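Researcher: Please translate sequence to structure tokens.
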Amino acid sequence: MSRVAEDRGRTAGARTGGAAPRRRGRPRSAAADSAIVEAVLRLIEDGVPIAELSMERIAREAGVGKATLYRRWSGKSALLVDVMRSMDVPCPPLEGVSVRDDLVRLLEFLHRRGLAKRSSAVLRTVVSHVEAQPELWAEYHETVVRARHEVLLGVLRRGVATGEIRADRDLDTLAALFVGPMLARALLHEWQQLPEGLAEDVVDTVLEGVRPPAAEPGTGAGTSAR
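Model: Translation complete:
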């Protein structure tokens, strides 16, 4: 049936009070979706290499048929994107009073996620897989990473507006300076716990370097030359 015919059929149904045509096929089971995602997370957490994470093995671990997976995802990469999305936690609400405090709060959020074995295991697996499947990282970046990055950029823009951060520095570079140490610790030293106070140390160190220089006595705004 053509799209025009379908549209006409829906219009006729509406006029006669009939129900809209149902979509063919069985509805997706939320329980099956959850079981499949949980199975992938367990396998990754147990150290299964990405190359051995086949759809057959995932189906077996989840207790479902392989056809169930392929009805939901076109392949392993598409499934992994949804697995990563399932682990996403919204950024915490920010007070909006102190740029420093908001930056510490955001980095503490990364700190807590870095302490979670499951989160860091998935992140390392994705990074190791990105060269072979760059579209996986690109989609994850667009759906998850970009939103967090925009929250951080918003705090930095406010810092520039309030005079807490110099206006002559690239904000994307500053964002990397804040987040980079947390990610490096989680990825390169996964056997070590991130130390308490790391967020404060990172924020204070970077802010010290990008804080506008204090005006010298007699040269500040509103001071007349003699």
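Researcher: Any highlights?
Model: The chain has ten helices and no strands.
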